[in-house]
Amino acid sequence: MKYYCIGIKGAGMATLANLLYDLGNEVSGYDDVKDYKFTQEGLDERGINIFYDSSHDIDKETIVTYSKAFSEDHKELVRVREMGLTIKKYNELIGDLTDKYKTVSVAGTHGKTTTSSLITHVLNDVYGCNYFIGDGSGHANGENKLFVIESDEFNKHFLAYHPTISVITNVEAEHLECYDGLTDIVDTFTRFANDNTKENVIVCGDNENIRKIVFDKKVRYYGFSEDNDTVAKNVVLTSDGSSFDVYRDKEFYGHFELPLFGKHMILNALACIEVCILEDISSEVIHDKLKTFSNAKRRFAIEDVNGTIIIDDYAHHPTEIEVTINSARQKYPNRKVVAVFKPNTYSRTKDFTEDFIRVLNMADKAYVTEIECNREKPEDYPGVTSHSIIEKLNNGEIISDEMVDKLMDYKGEVILFMSCADISHMKSNLIALLK
Description:
This protein is of the alpha/beta class. It is 31% helix and 24% strand. A hairpin with a 2-residue loop joins strand 14 and strand 15 (251-258). Helix 5 crosses helix 8 (283-291) and helix 9 runs parallel beside helix 11. The radius of gyration is 21 Å and the shape is globular.
């Protein structure tokens, strides 16, 4: 079959395109962004054509799918509708894939990408598996029986998925432009666990909102608290990573080492361990595989540039920014931590202004860009700007690509670039200056 993916450089859409190609389909796509994005690595490797205007022909038998970041009146969407092409929702295509395999679905407000990557790392090495990870990484082989998928709650997309095993890492207020408050979010995750999941549910029992859910599937709770079924104890956090002991049902299960930073990464590893146990993988094998894990793309990606530490991270929610700053302090306890944050939606900025202020004040210095959003209009959010954050920071100011030389004041320190929007220009400009 032939597929045309509009918004193909988006993290989820790029991943879907990779999978469709690997399964023997002809795939091409469109995007507004001409600059290189980290998500297109897999597209380029496969030779998938990316178009940036509407001058190319599209076969009438092509199935079109598109990113919700594109407005319904976008010129390319208007064109394919006028051509009479079949249009299928992005999440419905993914849902079709989940029905074809024994699917492990990783959902939650935070930690989905790393947890999916951890599970994929082990299962793929041991058995071979298909995977869909929201950093643009996707691969499929029709012979594989397992499928690991990062499952996004945005617009309730994951309600189209039908996994055999579900993981829920946490539930918090997020995407409030799509949900009617926290109760609606909890209810949606409840539906996902109880109505969509076929067999087992693995959840972080330390999360208070997850504890509000009454599960009707086999459920296993993990976390640091003693009231969980699986508990991490004797945690040691160092500049080299983390180590911990795992107890299952009060019995010692094994000791594990993780080359990642922050206690939240241990929670992600616990979810991975539980999935691997369901797949009959021994503690010894899990231990060895976790030790060799390298993080997902744009998840605490470290680069040392002539003594200055540059960290690129996808953090865009206050909770994610907080753990990224804490992780940097674990890895580099004797250096200043400078936060560079690009807000990517007006709605999230409005909903979490005070939380953004609180967590950015954890850094020694904070820089914030103007809001960059391709799916919301500023006129719909009057008065919502980055300055509502900046003006309340203890040591913060505005920054842009043209003002990156400000960061040279912090040579030799740790500079965090955080956003789910494209912040690569600013990072690249700083690296060029440092070199």
